[in-house]
UniProtKB/TrEMBL annotation, chain A:
<dbReference type="GO" id="GO:0032511">
    <property type="term" value="P:late endosome to vacuole transport via multivesicular body sorting pathway"/>
</dbReference>
<feature type="transmembrane region" description="Helical">
    <location>
        <begin position="43"/>
        <end position="62"/>
    </location>
</feature>
<keyword id="KW-0812">Transmembrane</keyword>
<comment type="similarity">
    <text>Belongs to the OB-RGRP/VPS55 family.</text>
</comment>
<keyword id="KW-0472">Membrane</keyword>
<dbReference type="InterPro" id="IPR007262">
    <property type="entry name" value="Vps55/LEPROT"/>
</dbReference>
<dbReference type="GO" id="GO:0005768">
    <property type="term" value="C:endosome"/>
</dbReference>
<feature type="transmembrane region" description="Helical">
    <location>
        <begin position="103"/>
        <end position="126"/>
    </location>
</feature>
<protein>
    <submittedName>
        <fullName>Vacuolar protein sorting 55 containing protein</fullName>
    </submittedName>
</protein>
Automatic annotation (TrEMBL), chain B:
<feature type="transmembrane region" description="Helical">
    <location>
        <begin position="114"/>
        <end position="135"/>
    </location>
</feature>
<feature type="transmembrane region" description="Helical">
    <location>
        <begin position="7"/>
        <end position="28"/>
    </location>
</feature>
<dbReference type="InterPro" id="IPR007919">
    <property type="entry name" value="UPF0220"/>
</dbReference>
<keyword id="KW-0472">Membrane</keyword>
<protein>
    <recommendedName>
        <fullName>Transmembrane protein 50A</fullName>
    </recommendedName>
</protein>
<dbReference type="Pfam" id="PF05255">
    <property type="entry name" value="UPF0220"/>
</dbReference>
<keyword id="KW-0812">Transmembrane</keyword>
<dbReference type="GO" id="GO:0016020">
    <property type="term" value="C:membrane"/>
</dbReference>
<comment type="similarity">
    <text>Belongs to the UPF0220 family.</text>
</comment>
Length: 138, 141
């Protein structure tokens, strides 16, 4: 390995910092979508965001491979089901509010951007957590 | 082909949840954007479709098969098949009911708009599809 140990530790901390920046950016976009127009209906999407990382909370702490397998545990399947439903809900809630005329195009755009940023952060966290099993830094 | 089946086993529950959520959110959109109050009768096809999807997936897939051994005797699997039969009857009655409500909304000027009927049919179809998707992708062994 060309990089030294301290250099790899520094890169690892940098990736964690960038992940934190992504999550913070998603939160800022979410709050901006409500505060700029003084219309707090889009906060309903936060309920969907709470359900979105449920497989990570339940199963990634112990074993990351159980999420990416079809071992058939009923609870794993149920949390995947909830994740799929919450992904659709994160897109559906702003769209329904726009269709009903409660929010405008600006808030809709910020809501969907917030969802994309959160999605990228979660996928990157999965990838980062997965590869750390074989290339440990410490 | 085996890799595709393996991938389906991994992603299938998420896809099923997405389809289920899409079905119910179409109905929420129709109710929220409706100019008139939608009566509770219009909610029933979606509720019973969700119940039917749940009934499908209460059955272990391995219990239906010619090599299934049961300590209760050779004829015990008729209960599982009867349960599935009732689930399918409920699902088809939901579809028929939602189509009937769509026709009623289309033919009359008073009452909910056509989008409410279309969303009801979409809700039933998507909820039942999500039940079948979950059935095909999960295995209990």
């Amino acid at each position: 390995m060309a990089l030294s140990r301290s250099m790899r530790a520094c890169l690892h901390s940098g990736r964690l910092a960038l992940l934190a920046i992504l999550v913070s950016g998603g939160i800022v976009l979410q709050i901006l979508a409500c505060a700029l127009y003084n219309n707090w209906w889009p906060m309903l999407t936060v309920l969907m965001y709470l359900i979105l990382p449920m497989p990570l909370i339940f199963f990634l702490g112990s074993d990351t491979s159980s999420m990416m397998s079809n071992g058939g545990d009923g609870w794993v399947n149920f949390t995947k089901f909830l994740t799929g439903a919450s992904i659709v809900g994160s897109i559906a809630i702003p769209s329904i509010l726009k269709h009903a005329g409660v929010i405008g195009w600006g808030a809709l755009t910020m809501e969907l951007s917030s969802f994309v940023v959160f999605g990228v952060a979660i996928l990157w966290f999965l990838q980062m957590n997965g590869e750390d099993e074989y290339s440990g830094v410490f | 082909m085996e890799n595709l089946a393996l991938l389906w086993g991994i992603i299938g529950p998420g896809v099923s949840g997405a389809i289920f959520g899409a079905g119910w959110w179409f109905w929420v959109d129709a109710v929220v954007c409706s100019a008139v109050q939608v009566s509770f009768l219009h909610y029933l096809p979606g509720i019973f479709a969700s119940l039917a999807a749940l009934m499908f997936n209460c059955v272990n897939k391995d219990e239906i098969g010619y090599d299934y051994y049961s300590p209760y005797g050779d004829d015990s699997e008729w209960r599982v098949k009867l349960w599935l039969f009732v689930a399918y009857v409920v699902s088809f009655v939901c579809l028929a009911g939602s189509v009937g409500l769509l026709v009623q909304d289309a033919l009359t000027n008073k009452g909910p708009s056509v989008w409410t009927g279309v969303a009801g049919v979409l809700q039933c179809v998507l909820v039942l599809i999500s039940g079948l998707v979950y059935w095909t992708c999960h295995s209990e062994d």
